[in-house]
Amino acid sequence: MRRKILLIKGKGGLGNRILSAVCGLIYADLSGRTPVIDWRDGSYAPLGDNAYPLLFNTPIKSTCAEIDKAVCPVAPAIWTGYLKASTQDMINKFMPKAHSSPKAYRVFCVDLEDLNVPEDIAVYWSYLPKFRHLTKQIRRDLRFTGRSIPCIIKEYLDRYFTPNVRVRREVTRLTAQLGANPIGIHVRYTDRKIPLNSALSILRKRLMQVPDQPIFLATDNAHVQRKMKMEFANLYHINKHLPDNGERLHWPATDVAKLLEAENALIDMWVLSKCTRLIYSRQSTFSQTSVYLGNMARNQLDDVDRNSPKVLLKQLIQYYA
């Protein structure tokens, strides 16, 4: 019997592609396929280099190079002859107006509700994870009996996304420096902005209960970092590149040390996961990945967008797409 492959592509931020890759990895196990993760799009490593095995210690042994020249049936067929291409390039070529469409992934992603796709190579991509489309298959599979989706996600994160040595070393150092019961706060404030005043108001209220509680800040905005350092004495953050112009940092066109800054983002994500409490936005997959990693309970979370009709509607549309 020939080995069948699931080629898992990435697009977007680290939280998006990590959780989407987890969805793909679960599909690979459900359908009996060998997974290969392809992050060669230039966002987190030089264009053409696969950022995934550079950032993580992975049990995946197969490489993208083994697949690039494969001559065999591919699903979806649109990827035939383009297995080396990035999702960004494919959308530019075939659906240039669909970068923001919640349903664009259907054109470029294997049917997640079909575990018996006959093609030798299937390609998985989605901008956001599509766990809902796997729910029935997961419930029928004895390997997942009695476990919740968050529990399953954490298992896959632990198995496939163990950070590299530098990241693990820095996470250990920072968590020791923070000490007991730190509050984590994630403030995305570049191309997307969380309600900063609400986040700071929640933080101030928490500090009224424990004034000396250490704070770990993960942000993509230099102004936010400076502002919070002026107000909060017991605040920690890592040293990383922060664009003063408010532009998105991780993007193929950016001129930064991509792998280094990707590692810095992972340090933020993993330290947040070890905090006692997290102030975040539910629309951030970066924060949500930290929640899964830390196996955080609802009473540990302060979601600044929990009552936002706009965010709730957007998530509902994405959920059913």
What count of structural domains?
2
The parts where pLDDT drops under 50 for at least 5 residues are none
Total number of strands: 11
Q: In percent, how helical is the residue content?
A: 40-55%
**CATH class of the largest domain, please?**
Alpha Beta
Q: Could you say what the CATH topology of the largest domain is called?
A: Rossmann fold
Largest sheet: 5 strands, parallel
The CATH architecture category of the largest domain equals: 3-Layer(aba) Sandwich
Shape: globular
Q: Assess the beta-strand content as a share of residues.
A: 5-15%
Count of discrete alpha- or pi-helical segments spanning 4 or more residues: 13
How far apart the termini lie comes to 34 Å
Strand order of the largest sheet: 9-8-7-10-11
Give descriptors for this structure:
Rossmann fold, 2 domains, 321 residues, 4-stranded parallel β-sheet
Could you explain the architecture of this structure?
By secondary structure, the protein is α/β, with parallel strands linked by helices. It folds into 2 domains: 5-163, Rossmann fold, CATH 3.40.50; 172-320, Rossmann fold, CATH 3.40.50.11350. It has 13 helices and 11 strands. Strand 1, helix 1 (14-31) and strand 2 (34-38) form a beta-alpha-beta unit. The protein is globular and about 60 Å long. The model has no long low-confidence stretch (mean pLDDT 92).
